[in-house]
Design brief:
Elements lengths: L11 E4 L7 E7 L6 E8 L2 E6 L24 E2 L6 E2 L6 E3 L9 E2 L1 E4 L2 E4 L8
Antiparallel strand pairs: 1-10, 2-3, 3-4, 4-8, 5-6, 6-7, 9-10
Length: 124
């Protein structure tokens, strides 16, 4: 994976209470040529961040704003190709990109605010 051109660590993204548990939220960071689309997922108290880009066809995953999860909210869903990804690591388990992964965006929660964390993300 390549290192994304993300804002500085500590940059606030949203308040933690803006994310349902489980829930998802899409965000656009930067503008112009430096613009990137990401999304956040909250599940079981943990928050995960990913680039909003399907590894199969380089399209956004969401067809509707903030719609990134399956109906039962157990997996990430690509609305274009019906690929399924694990929430915890972005690994594709079903669909045209099986075996590939979403690109992680490092996030952390500090004092109730989801922020950009130091790259790479610490998981475990």
């Amino acid at each position: 994976m390549t290192k994304l051109a993300l804002p500085e660590p500590g940059t606030p993204l949203c308040a933690l209470d803006e994310l349902d548990d489980p829930g998802a939220k899409g965000l656009t960071l930067g503008s112009g040529a430096s613009r990137i689309n990401i999304f956040l997922i909250r599940k079981s108290g943990a928050v995960y961040g990913y680039l909003n880009l399907c590894p199969h066809a380089a399209t956004r995953l969401d067809n509707w704003p903030d719609r990134f999860l399956t109906q039962d909210e157990s997996q990430i869903l690509c609305g274009n190709h019906a690929a399924l990804f694990r929430i915890e690591d972005g690994y594709c388990t079903s669909g045209p990109c099986v075996g590939k992964q979403l690109e992680a965006v490092p996030v952390e929660v500090v004092e109730g605010v989801v922020r950009i964390a130091v790259y790479p993300p610490a998981r475990g």
